[in-house]
């Protein structure tokens, strides 16, 4: 705001912001499209299956074909659904997932990204809005499976938001800043925070999987129990919005983990964006690996693990980190 007071936003500046946003959106859509492809190929490889191999060379066009199929399918609104909320819910879920990407420093030069002093706090605040879209979608569908999925997701995300937030406070204590770029620079000068904050990193990844409703924490959309959970009644491009939200958050969460614990864009010899891509890809591969190997846990195990294990361990890690920082 202080910068805008000294140099007000001009038409050219606004146009640049719009162009930057469109470019980032296009880039993210491409990344998400092939995240789905690589997830299917990786899981197929781990489970001795082939995976997509028909549409295009090596099946590379399969995800694009799936997206086109969803876009041309009929958009059905259930007769007894709350129409306005039903139509609005996928947008409420997706928009925050795209907004948080503006806070991640992908490179040292901050191309198309923000360098705000409270970037980490903004990320946590924006990402928590998505739960509203999920709950509204489940409730507005007027379907018992959707409602159960929405309620499960709300309980799960509220529970795991606490250890997720606590796991990153240790990084803030070590750096003394909520600026994500400052956190990366501090690691480039000393060591990656995954070493002194290995407990925080483990908690972050576990809580992040639960936040994403990913295996083994995919109870809100458990196919064997709830058909598809909160988006059971959705079809066509609105169904695609929910799927897009999930995979954008997979990328965003891994990008945040890279920024906080793996040194972000810092590294020798290679350009900064390549280092960032390598580290983020490693985190994404881990998430896919977990889905290929872990079974879904029960609901009571899910909630008990958050409140009885993750939160006490996160508190202990926070106390130890605060003591070390004080000394």
From TrEMBL:
Domain of life: Bacteria
Membrane-crossing residue ranges in chain numbering: 12-37, 85-108, 120-141, 162-184, 190-210, 247-267, 273-293, 305-326
Catalytic activity: a quinone + NADH + 5 H(+)(in) = a quinol + NAD(+) + 4 H(+)(out)
Coiled coil spans: none
One cellular component term from this protein's GO annotations in UniProt: plasma membrane
One Pfam family from the record: NADHdh
Membrane-related topology note: Multi-pass membrane protein
UniProt cross-references to InterPro entries, sorted A to Z: NADH_UbQ_OxRdtase_su1/FPO, NADH_UbQ_OxRdtase_su1_CS
Localization terms from the record: Cell membrane; Membrane
Keyword list, A-Z: Cell membrane, Membrane, NAD, Quinone, Translocase, Transmembrane, Transmembrane helix, Ubiquinone
Its EC number(s): 7.1.1.-
Chief localisation class: membrane
Enzyme class: translocase
GO biological process, one term: aerobic respiration
GO MF: NADH dehydrogenase activity; oxidoreductase activity, acting on NAD(P)H, quinone or similar compound as acceptor; quinone binding
Described purpose of this protein according to its UniProt entry: NDH-1 shuttles electrons from NADH, via FMN and iron-sulfur (Fe-S) centers, to quinones in the respiratory chain. The immediate electron acceptor for the enzyme in this species is believed to be ubiquinone. Couples the redox reaction to proton translocation (for every two electrons transferred, four hydrogen ions are translocated across the cytoplasmic membrane), and thus conserves the redox energy in a proton gradient. This subunit may bind ubiquinone.
Subunit structure: NDH-1 is composed of 14 different subunits. Subunits NuoA, H, J, K, L, M, N constitute the membrane sector of the complex.
Family according to the record: Belongs to the complex I subunit 1 family.
Protein name: NADH-quinone oxidoreductase subunit H
Organism of provenance: Ferroacidibacillus organovorans
